[in-house]
Amino acid sequence: MDDQETADDAGISTRTMEIVVALVLLALSALVVYDSYRLGSKWGNDGPQSGYFPFYIGLLLGVASLATLVRVFLTQWRRDGKATAPPGLFVEWGQLKLVLSVLVPAVVYVLAVQLVGMYVASAVYIMLFMRWLGHYSWVKSAAIGFGVSAAIFVLFEIWFKVPLFKGAYDALAWLGY
After folding, report:
1. How far apart are CA 9 and CA 66, in angstroms?
2. DSSP 171
3. Residues 16 and 73 sit within 8 Å (Cβ to Cβ)
4. Which of 22, 34, 109, 167 could form a disulfide with 117 if both were Cys (CB 3.0 to 4.6 A apart)?
5. pLDDT tens by residue, 46-73
6. Are both 72 and 99 inside the same structural domain?
7. How far apart are CA 80 and CA 99, in angstroms?
8. Chain segment 113-156, per-residue pLDDT in tens
9. Does one domain contain both 69 and 123?
10. pTM surpassing 0.70?
11. Which of 84, 27, 88 is nearest to 61 (CA)?
12. At what angle do helices 138-153 and 118-132 cross, to 10 degrees?
């Protein structure tokens, strides 16, 4: 087995991540350039139109993304012709699994906030996180999760009179808030 196969088996290579990030940024820049052009990306009689600056920022982002892709592929092309070291490892699978064990629940939490609101989603998020990663008892996890959410509710809704987002289903409507 050569070095490249060993690096791929251990995780994701730096080259792969450079390509993925460059392609995502290139797509984002294309979206920004398109929408800025739609809004007006020229200099009008009274100054720049609303899409003028975003257009050029998107254009620069696209050029930088293309330059990154060209550099990555030229480096690979040179490497194929010579005996150079393979690209380094960006992340091992075990490390990526640890990152995703925090990232995936955070994404689910953000989606849950949209449905049931800040307070209920936060209580459940804290409770499940404490139970899953901290290995606390269900009673302690629930007490702290709902206790923190209750404290934040009192602080914002009652003391500061600043309502936080309650979600599409307004889970706290029965409290009159």
Report:
1. 28
2. T
3. no
4. 167
5. 888 889 999 999 999 999 999 999 999 8
6. no
7. 33
8. 999 999 999 999 999 999 998 999 999 999 999 999 999 999 99
9. no
10. no
11. 27
12. 150
